[in-house]
Design goal:
The chain is mainly alpha-helical and 319 residues long. It contains 14 helices and no strands.
Length: 319
Amino acid sequence: MTVLLLILKIAVVVVLAASLAEALVLSWRHAHRGGAAYDWKAAGVSVVDFLVREYPLRWLLPATAFYLGAMDWLWQHRLFTLPMDAWRGWTACFVGQEFCYYWYHRAAHRVRWFWCTHSIHHSSNQLNLSAAYRFGWTGRLTGTLAFFMLAPLLGMPPRVILLMLTLNLLYQFWIHATWIPRLGPLEWVLNTPSAHRVHHASNLEYLDGNYGGVLIVFDRLFGTYIAERAEVPCRYGLVVPVVGHNLLRIEFAQWHALWRDLRAARSARAVWGHLFKPPGWRAEGPGETTEELRARAAVASPTAGSDHAVGLPLQTPLT
């Protein structure tokens, strides 16, 4: 445990240094070999997002204390006691945390309330290591830790679960890369750069897949695994891409849109739908959920099944 905590202390420096090194290499490659230029402004947005979230907001938004208290209460009333002095106890905590993370991450894409925060992680139009720590500022207020409440009830110590969640997110840093190829048999078990490229892609074929943290097995088990295809290059960012680098707009555009829809809602059903149904849901008329977009694309181009069909949304990009 002491060694793990030491790793976490130095992780911030390592993460920032590694993303800077990648930026320099990719910029050099662009200058000498062509290709897309590295977006230094987007990287700057990610750095500011990270620093504000991890320092002032950590103290100004103490909402996490409520969930820690709830986890401690559930731990005191746990149904089982795991042997944390043996490897099987730690293994159970790892798998349990992965299970909880899968369902949190799936909800973060499929429930608009959670998507308003998580969309910020997907807002960069380039996938690189700096995008890995762009998480948004409102996660402490939206109740993401509620997805991990089952773990202490089943005998998993809250501090161990939170430590493993932190290591889970640290593991995911390196998979935010476009230059690492597929990793053979590891693709069956682990969340790899290839699997995560698909997760970050906004192509219609790739939407809403690969929610795993360290493991990809729950995606395979619950039918949300999508393999990267050579003939379908990933296009990164949101379905309606963010144009520009206005930090406050990136952080709060989705919340502003939600507030606008709630004010216009004419029924309790509409309020519920705007809050808890998938992004793109509409109370009246055709919506723009993943399922509806795919259905319209299939009608418009039955053989292509591609997001080049007519069915994609026509909103103006966020500027």
